[in-house]
Amino acid sequence: MVHHYHYVIVLLLLFFTSISSHQHHDHDHDPSIISTMEQFSGYSILEPTSFSSLSYDAQALQNQIDELSGFSDAPAPSVTRVLYTDKDVLARRYVKNLMGIAGLSVREDAVGNIFGRWDGSEPGLAAVATGSHIDAIPYSGKYDGVVGVLGAVEAISVLKRSGFKPKRSLEVILFTSEEPTRFGISCLGSRLLAGSENLANSLKTITDSQNVSFLDAARSAGYARDEDDLSSVFLKKGTYSAFIELHIEQGPILEDEGISIGIVTAIAAPASLRVEFEGNGGHAGAVLMPNRNDAGLAASELALAVEKHVLESGSVDTVGTVGILQLHPGAINSIPSKSHIEIDTRDIDEERRNQVIEKIHETAIRITKTRGVKLTEFHIINQDPPALSDEAVVNAMETATKELNLTSKLMISRAYHDSLFMARVSPMGMIFIPCYKGYSHKPEEFASIKDMSNGVKVLAFTLAKLSLQ
Ligand code: GLV
Ligand code: MN
Ligand code: MN
To answer: What pLDDT digit, counting tens, does each position of 155-183 carry?
Structure first.
């Protein structure tokens, strides 16, 4: 960081010194030069020497990522950190502590979205926000989401150490439950921030697989003290002038092409479904094959149909996954009487994804006829549209990568992120960094210190620029 930053600043200084020397003799002390430089560079130029103190602590970030990965219900290198569990609460405490050390004022809302704020010189203006999540799906890795939270705190610390003074306030957001693991709802915190009335209502009655209600779980973690309070989470219009999320790519493109930074232009449209079949069950030896209506085979047939319908779209951009398939009673010598399957399907083309959902529904109904089972549930949990990044935010990120002499590429995010929902209430942009072989949602997930440093630098520059606009 110090190198590039110095280089840029030295060039800027030479540039402005040479221009201004034609106009002023005592330019060293002319405040208008300072303010012109501020406009050009996007940074608060106090005095040239203050930039020498700019430092980026890459090793500290890595240490924090390693420490945070210790708050896990799975043995290392796997990470399992599920919403409102003891490990999640400890991890949250760890992040709040880091926010405090960075000098941010910390606030939490009713579902546990955490905000760390650095007041700008004009705190009444809409703030510039950044952030991501720290929950981790079962047996996953330590970088997904975490880089965008700890990296954001570090980006702000970098700016503070440089002597930069934001005009708009800067905020780091830790979003509650980006992952759908516990209650089946993805991007729970950001979906609610974006004002989803449906979600605010359903959270009052929803339970997890152990029959623990959302509200009880939230209260056990210290949140949701007032049941009717969940709409208090909704963001007021114009709270943020921009939102930027730093994240690992979770795909192989940047690494394959040797590019440092991905600038996200759009996020693909995700959907998820819950389907349940019921049959008569019975004894695995005594009930003969013609007399069965096996709910497990109904679910298996539907799982294969998901793959078929996705492939029928003819586009590599259409994907579908059955990640959950549960049978009841789950005994080797009992014909499944109930089955439960959860389906994730996505596309950059919303219409095409909706056609896949329609076909899955038709097939589920056909299976009830051919197998004599009941379709006791066909529930579309979420069916979200895609989101587009904001042009001005994209431009700011591109300028930042250029100033830092980093290679970059415009790309689509096939994974979903809290940014998908923040885009509903704020201009949005995302910064991707390469990750090893594109691995994610598994323990082999890895991002190098160098790539994370690049991401944090681009984030810091972008925040700085947007905070002055
Ligand atoms: C996010 O975790 C996703 O599944 O895209
Ligand atoms: Mn994830
Ligand atoms: Mn993520």
So the answer is: 999 999 989 999 999 999 999 999 999 99
The answer to whether the CB of 246 is under 6 A from ligand 1 is: no
Nearest ligand 1 atom to the CA of 137 is 2
Please indicate, yes or no, whether residues 264 and 291 belong to a single structural domain of this protein: no
- Write down the pLDDT at residue 52: 32
Cβ distance 208 to 217 under 8 Å?
yes
Ligand 2 centroid – CA 390 distance (Å): 23
Return d(Cα 66, Cα 70) in angstroms, integer: 7
Residues 32 and 49 in one domain: yes
Cβ-Cβ contacts under 8 Å for 10 (sequence gap 6 or more): none
From CA 130, how far away is CA 126, in angstroms rounded? 13
Which atom of ligand 1 approaches the CA of 417 most closely?
A: 1
- pLDDT digits 0-9 by tens, 109-152: 999 999 999 999 999 999 999 999 999 999 999 999 999 999 99
Q: What is the pLDDT of residue 227?
A: 64
Query: What residue numbers bound the domain in which 32 lies?
Result: 2-53
Measured from the CA of 346, which atom of ligand 1 is nearest?
A: 5
Residue 275: give its domain's CATH number.
3.30.70.360
Residue closest via CA to ligand 1's atom 5 equals: 415
DSSP 312-330: HT--TT-EEEEEEEEEES-
On whether both 25 and 101 belong to a single domain, the answer is no
pLDDT-based confidence at residue 27 (cuts at 50, 70, 90)? very low
Handedness of CA 219, 182, 250, 233 (dihedral sign): negative
Render pLDDT for 265-284 as a digit per residue (tens, 0 to 9). Answer: 999 999 999 999 999 999 99
Tell me the two tokens of residue 44. Answer: 């608060």
Closest CA to 462 of 175, 269, 199, 241: 241
Share of the chain above pLDDT 90, in %: 86
Same domain, 111 and 172: yes
Are both 353 and 221 inside the same structural domain? Answer: no
Centre of ligand 3 from the C-alpha of residue 27, in Å: 49
